[in-house]
Amino acid sequence: MSFTLCTSGAATAKAGANVSGTLLGNAAVLDQFSQETEGFINAETRRDWITAPANAASSGALADVSSSHIANKMINYDMGGYISRLEAQTMLDVNADIVRKGIAFLSKDEFQEKM
User: Fold this and answer.
1) Is there a domain that residue 1 lies in?
2) Which residues neighbour 53 within 8 Å (Cβ) at sequence distance 6 or greater?
3) Number of domains, the chain
4) Residue 2, in any domain of the structure
């Protein structure tokens, strides 16, 4: 099981109360989402966060970015349970903004040099 950078509960919370119950019961798909997200973060920041220790500042940022990225995958998996597409789209937009800003922060050379 993956979920090295965040908990599945954090990702589920960011996906919202109307996330697919079928998805929540599918550990294999959730694990795949987590592994894809960890690879994405490592590639975007040019650092292996899975094997490299993280300090408190980066640990929180990694958890935030990871859970938001996974949440977007969960929302996209099945939008049928959401009250409207606008509800789902708003959550996608909020999570995408967290991912964008977090990746920019984690990618900064001056931040990584302090690690």
Assistant:
1) no
2) none
3) 1
4) no
Phi, psi for 43 (deg, rounded to 5): -65, -45
Question: What is the mean pLDDT, run by run of 10 residues, along the chain of 115 residues?
Answer: 89 97 96 97 93 78 96 97 96 98 88 60
In a domain, residue 30? The reply is yes
Residue-number span of the structural domain to which 60 is assigned: 8-114
Q: Does residue 3 sit within a domain? A: no
| Residues 68 and 99: beta-carbon distance below 8 Å | yes
DSSP code, position 79: -
Q: Where are the alpha helices (H) located in the chain, listed in sequence order? A: 8-15, 21-24, 27-45, 56-77, 85-107, 109-114
Q: 3-state class of 53 per DSSP? A: coil
Residue pair 48/42 in contact (Cβ under 8 Å)? The answer is yes
